[in-house]
């Protein structure tokens, strides 16, 4: 196996929260190695909704998810993090000298004083609708994420689902698509009230067509190209929506993957932490962002940012034993040269 690389902190997951943890660790003179299963940084923001605006990042009235990731990358770059992308962390074991050994699917071995798990929802993938012949259309005319809005210009788009993604994309794509049809099995949507109101308004204006209460029942088309999407009521009454594209937004499947086998105390597919320190049940392992849970947890990027600061402070004594941590603001000491 490859030689061990030594570092202060190993961060598992390079989503928005993992990226900000690099910065927070850097401020406290802790070097980081960062591993992500995806071949790019940015987690859900980059993989699932790069062009969707985010409205609840402090200081940015609106910022596209991809831009937020660019800013976070820029913010942590001067601390020279070492990225190991396209590899999943498969092993996490305690060393004889009370450090941790992180091992990846491609054989990278990272020996660290502390580990910060920022693994989001784990190995994530979309929930796929159980429809005959689905595979032949996937990646061609059925997509689980929108990479570029303009790909939908002039298209007849069926959006299925009742959560934030379905509602947000219906609103956003209504600006470019020829037609937007929203299929949901009940009239009520589980999405931000503001967004639902906006969708209702666009429906009144005739720019979105509501197909409720219906669910997907079949696909029509050939050679990967959809021509229609069959929908049915619970009583089995069917109709066909003429369409070029189907975007099913049925959420992400939560698959913790190897994380479930590391002996950390879990609660319903999340890692339990002590909120004030972000400590998990294992000494020297901290968890932050979507993967971490405690009573009252809000799964938001901004919550994860604050947790990143807490985890870095908690990890400090493991990396710099015996040193007193003088808390200072980022305007004073600790800023990287040139900032
Ligand atoms: P993630 O972004 O999930 O990143 C975790 C990373 O860890 C992934 O890249 C994954 O590949 C990696 N990973 C997991 N397991 C392993 C492993 N074993 N080895 C290596 N790597 C691993 N939040 C907001 O605050 N505002 C919004 O407006 C907003 N809109 C959203 C819209 C949509 C459509 C979605 C899906 C989410 C939205 N969210 C929003 C939620 C937000 O994206 C998440 O809270 C945020 O991405 C969590 O960041 P994270 O870094 O904790 O995890």
Helix count, DSSP H or I runs of 4 or more residues: 7
Structural classification: alpha/beta
Helical proportion, percent range: 10-25%
How would you spell out the order of helices and strands?
Answer: EHEHEEHEEEEEHEHEHEEEEEEEEEEH
What global shape is seen?
A: elongated
Distance between the termini: 39 Å
Bound molecules: flavin-adenine dinucleotide
Task: Give a verbal description of the structure.
By secondary structure, the protein is of the alpha/beta class. Helix content is 22%, strand content 28%. It has helices at residues 16-27, 43-47, 65-77, 134-137, 164-173, 193-204, 301-319; strands at residues 4-12, 32-36, 53-54, 63-64, 82-85, 89-94, 100-104, 109-117, 125-126, 156-160, 179-183, 208-211, 215-222, 225-232, 238-242, 245-248, 252-253, 266-267, 270-272, 285-287, 292-293. The strands form six sheets. Strands 1, 2, 5, 6, 7, 8 and 20 form a seven-stranded mixed sheet that branches. Strands 12-11-10-16 form a four-stranded parallel sheet. Strand 10 (156-160), helix 5 (164-173) and strand 11 form a beta-alpha-beta unit. Helix 1 (16-27) packs parallel to helix 3, helix 1 (16-27) runs parallel beside helix 7 (301-319) and helix 5 (164-173) packs across helix 6. The longest helix has 19 residues, at 301-319. The protein is elongated, with a radius of gyration of 22 Å. Flavin-adenine dinucleotide (FAD) binds at residues 12-18, 35-38, 43-45, 48-49, 52, 54, 56, 88-89, 118-123, 164-165, 257-259, 289-290, 299-302, 304.
